[in-house]
Amino acid sequence: MASTDVIGAGQAQKKQGNNMSSKKKSRGPWLERYSALILAIVLLGAWQILVPLSGLSEFVLPTPLAIASRIVNELPLLATHGYVTLFEVVVGFAMGVLVGIPLALSIFYSRAFERAIYPILVALQTVPKVALAPLLVLYLGYGWAPKITLAFLISFFPIVISTVVGLQSLDKNLVNLVRSMGAGEWQTFFKVRLPAALPNIFGGFKVAVSLAVIGAVIGEYVAAERGLGYLQLQANSQFDTTLNFATVVAISGLGVMLYFIIDTIEARVTYKRDSAK
Amino acid sequence: MSATTQTGAAVDISRLSKIYKTREDDDVLALDKIDLKIEPGSFVAVVGPSGCGKSTLLSLLAGLTPASTGSIAIDGDGVSRPHPKTGVVFQSDLLLYWRTVLDNILLPIEIKKLDVAKYKTRAEELLAQVGLEGFGNKYPSELSGGMRQRVAICRALIQEPGLLLMDEPFGALDALTREQMIMDLQSMWLRLGNTVLFITHGIDEAVFLADRVLVMSPRPGRVDLDLKIDLPRPRQWSKTHEDKDYHGYVRQIRAIFEAKGILVAH
What we know:
The complex is a heterodimer of chains A (277) and B (266).
Chain A: H1 2-24, H2 27-54, H3 64-73, H4 75-109, H5 111-126, H6 129-140, H7 144-168, H8 172-180, H9 185-222, H10 228-237, H11 241-269
Chain B: E1 11-20, E2 28-38, E3 43-47, H1 54-61, E4 69-74, E5 77-78, E6 86-89, H2 101-105, H3 107-111, H4 116-129, H5 145-157, E7 163-167, H6 175-192, E8 195-200, H7 203-209, E9 212-217, E10 222-228, H8 237-241, H9 244-259
Helix pairs in contact in B: 7-9
InterPro entries (chain B): AAA+_ATPase, ABC_transporter-like_ATP-bd, ABC_transporter-like_CS, ABC_transporter_ATP-bind, P-loop_NTPase
Family (chain B): Belongs to the ABC transporter superfamily.
Keywords (chain B): ATP-binding, Nucleotide-binding, Transport
């Protein structure tokens, strides 16, 4: 077939082009691949060297190596509190999904509901969630509840919005296509609408889970007896800056881990439009 | 008709009108009392400018839009929703990018809850017939525009539809690919013998492909000319395009558009 040949030639040309450029400057791709790692090492190295030179005490700014060794030494402590925070984040995020997705579907399928709920959602979103933390403690006590609620409140909005946008941005012709094959709305949803919206939905999940970590930690700042936020406050009150930093690393490690879990699930259930296998 | 087997569906349209309601009370009459009988196994092209109602006609035939008045029957069954004997090819390929080529072709089978495994061989045969043998496990993003539209045609043909509706299927393709697709469509149709309704704004491809060309004009959407194309088959690209009769048909259609002011004589 003529068109097949044309494409074949184009691909061959592209491949050749890549080979040539990689031969010409072989350092290019290598530097590109490890650029983030290299920069991180350079920055941490500079930090490590400059702290002793500047004469700052360890109480003010510990060195990266000191923080790293503290993390290793305090691993059981960090894990104990980390599990608490992880639990709050996961439950809050799961609630965000369980409430956010049905809400998004209702908004998508009902014009009236969309009109009724959107102003409320937006108004709710403009309230800084941090400002609600003391109130939540007042109502829900010192236990799990206020942290989970905060993680939920902060994470469900991006889930709702990204799901609605994902569903609404579908090419209408695709709906006509499956309808012409005899599909009802149920099949249209599962064969076309949902798979097409999945990249958006997962984008929302990633934003939401990072925010849920912030929500849980802020909840712990306000009133808690456990959790990484609590541990950090303890370290702070004891002028243990190294442990303070170690906790920050643990909190962000938690967020990164959850992000990559979602990223991995996404890669399993979706096919990216641009990535040719 | 060169069709060897009697697999084409008959289409009977009578007094068919479609009115689109707009917000301000000036309703648009997209189709005005169309009467049309299509012989089983014939290739009918509908040609006209944008807004002449040709896409509306297709949408009604596909059962996607309800008629305002009048009726459509495919092999005697009234059409009010998508008819199982109908396959549709749209202007863009509308392949689902998260499905492989094979899974895209089998989508109608899945939707109709038929045995997918049984149709797999047929899907592979269809792919081979359009020159895409072995492409079943590729994703649409790995294919060129022409290849993707071929897959879309395979998808429409998987269930051996008696009526194939095509809505400007080659409009988005480059000239060379389009030429190849026109030739391939002809040979496929000669082999399958199904009824084809081919919507286009290209006068040349309408005359080249069809047994019969319907010329439509807008406001209200009406058939101005029902032209029988009497050119020998299989039509060959150069030979048919050099045919005296071919040019006669093209001129006749152009004359309508010139008279209506859709084309300015030049």
